[in-house]
Amino acid sequence: MIRICTPADTEVMYEIVNTAAKAYAGVIPPDCYHEPYMLLGELQAEMAAMTFFGWDEAGELLGFMGIQPVRDVTLIRHAYVRPEQQGQGIGGALLRDLIGRTRTRRLLVGTWAAAHWAIAFYQRHGFRLLPDKDALLQTYWHIPARQVATSVVLGLDIPKAEKLR
User: Fold this and answer.
1) Average pLDDT of the chain, as a whole number
2) 159 pLDDT band (50/70/90 cuts)?
3) Which residues fall within 8 angstroms of residue 85, CB to CB, at 6 or more apart?
4) Which of 5, 35, 106, 158 could form a disulfide with 52 if both were Cys (CB 3.0 to 4.6 A apart)?
5) Do the Cβ atoms of 113 and 151 come closer than 8 Å?
6) What is the DSSP string of 134-148?
7) Rounded CA gap, 22 and 120, in Å?
């Protein structure tokens, strides 16, 4: 079941993000990876800035994904599933749910250029790599220059007909 994440989920979300982000170790630039990958205060700030939706099975949060309207687009942010539950469709179900909740005509997601599994995941769901990633990252995200240089942006344009559903 997909539900909105609340402050009561913070500790579980913190554990999920930092366990799942271990996949980045040795893949993204070493100066961009640290443990924990996301500090508790950072997660709390992100939870205040956007809405997170989680996949809940029998009261256990197995994964989550954030959605953040920014100007004329919607950003997909912080998509993480417990490693032992990956490959079971949880991420895809969350992404489809967030696409349905989007009120803008365009969805963007940023990820590390070296995270080929993440890029392939979004491409399987209709997103495409965008050539103007530097401008997009500087316009819609607040991230360090080093992260801009080592990231990509994928986009999904939602046809007007789908917005009428």
Assistant:
1) 94
2) confident
3) 62, 63
4) 5
5) yes
6) HHHHHHH----HHHH
7) 18
Q: Write the pLDDT tens digit of every residue in 26-72.
A: 999 999 999 999 999 999 999 999 999 999 999 999 999 999 999 99
The whole model's pTM is what? 0.92
Measured between alpha carbons, how far apart are the two ends of the chain, in Å?
A: 21
Contact indicator for 135, 73 with CB cutoff of 8 Å? no
User: Alpha-carbon distance 56 to 34, whole Å?
Assistant: 28
Among residues 156, 158, 147, 74, the alpha carbon closest in space to that of 121 is found at: 156
Distance (Å, rounded) from C-alpha 140 to C-alpha 108? 9
Cα separation, 56 vs 64, whole angstroms: 9
CATH class of 2-163: alpha beta
Q: Which DSSP string do the residues of 64-97 spell out, in sequence order? A: EEEEEEETTEEEEEEEEE-GGGTTSSHHHHHHHH
Residue 63, helix vs strand vs coil: strand
